[in-house]
Design a protein that fits this description.
The chain has one domain. It has one helix and ten strands. The strands form two sheets. It has a six-stranded mixed beta sheet with strand order 1-2-4-6-9-10, with no helix packed on it. A four-stranded mixed beta sheet has the order 3-5-7-8, with no helix packed on it. Keywords: Signal.
Length: 130
């Protein structure tokens, strides 16, 4: 028995839409295949280089989990064009942080302790937060 073409199309669309409704799931850690990479901040670290601060020889994935003693403003550079970055503040200090493109020219995003913020990397490595 062959299904009529419109019914087959509707069933296919329904199956695909269920797949789109699923949340993304990432491996969390510091390995090369981690989709959510943990970056540790000490008292002196104030910048995040998305090309070099994660796994050696590989750019940071779209989810960055910031742990340690970060506070204040974190300048981010070297993002990959077209990537929506998610920053998770899993820091030890309850003051929160501000994430911004180096110098803050394209907006900034305040992230409370245990909070989440997103920024989009536009053309020429412009990280837009806001």
């Amino acid at each position: 028995m062959q299904l009529p073409r419109p019914l087959l199309w509707c069933c296919t669309l329904l199956a695909v839409s269920f797949r789109w409704g699923e949340a993304a799931k990432y491996i969390i850690g510091k390995t090369a295949n981690s989709g959510a990479f943990e970056v540790h901040f000490d008292d002196d670290k104030r910048t995040l280089d998305l090309a070099n601060d994660c796994h050696p020889g590989k750019a940071c994935p779209p989810v960055i989990i910031m742990s340690g003693r970060q506070v204040g403003t974190i300048d981010v550079n070297n993002c990959q064009e077209g990537v929506m970055y998610t920053f998770v503040n899993k820091g030890d200090i309850d003051a929160g942080v501000v994430v911004q493109h180096e110098g803050g020219l394209y907006g900034s995003k305040g992230i409370a302790q245990f909070g989440v913020g997103t920024c989009f990397c536009y053309k020429e490595g412009t990280l837009m937060c806001g």
